[in-house]
Amino acid sequence: MAARHEASFRLRVGKREVRVEGPEELVREAMRHWAGLWTGEDVRTPPTVEAGLGEEDHVAPVLRVQKNIGIRDLVALKEPGSPRDRLLTAAYYLERYEKRERYGLDQLRLLWLEAYPCAPMDPEAWEDAIRDGYLERVADGQFTLTFSGESFVQNGLVEEYRPG
After folding, report:
1. Among the CATH numbers 1.10.10, 3.30.390, 1.20.120, 2.30.38, which is that of 71-161?
2. What's the alpha-carbon Rg for the chain, to the nearest Å?
3. What does the alpha-carbon distance between residue 5 and residue 39 come to, in Å, rounded to a whole number?
């Protein structure tokens, strides 16, 4: 199975803004769709300023795709509310952005401290994640997200992706 890459994109025209995140293919398609609709121009050709219009009258769109993001950026995008969801977001970050197939609680704790410096890690968060079918033990105290756990985080921590 081919690896999917996460990406995000933000389009800003004046005070209007659209932000999309998800698999890279989805984000690229959204870029083409939204930029063309919003500006009424072909995104592949840069907008031009017509004679007589000042800079303030024509604002060029700003496009940005970000593939490698920090844990705080991911937390801002996903907005996890519960300790379990925070832990799953940290696990997702380790797998997706740091390319770790498995990790221990110590690695999750370190990432938790970076992501949530003012919130202590709930010791029951990982047990909740395992019980709910989102995280599993693989060997020697190591953990990995299940397919359901990865889907849950990718899709905005929405309970409809809960297994069974």
Report:
1. 1.10.10
2. 20
3. 27
Quickly list H helices, the chain.
24-39, 71-78, 83-96, 105-115, 125-131, 147-154
Which positions of the chain have pLDDT values less than 70? Answer: 1-5, 9, 11-18, 30, 33-67, 160-164
pTM given for the model: 0.59
The tokens for 151 are 């889907």
Instruction: Report the helix count and the strand count for the chain, using DSSP H and E.
Output: 6, 6
> Are the CB atoms for 125 and 105 separated by under 8 Å?
no
Calpha distance 5→164 (Å, rounded):
27
- How far is residue 115 from each of residues 46, 58, 88, 148, 149, measured CA to CA in Å? 38, 39, 12, 23, 19
Contact 5, 67 (CB under 8 A): yes
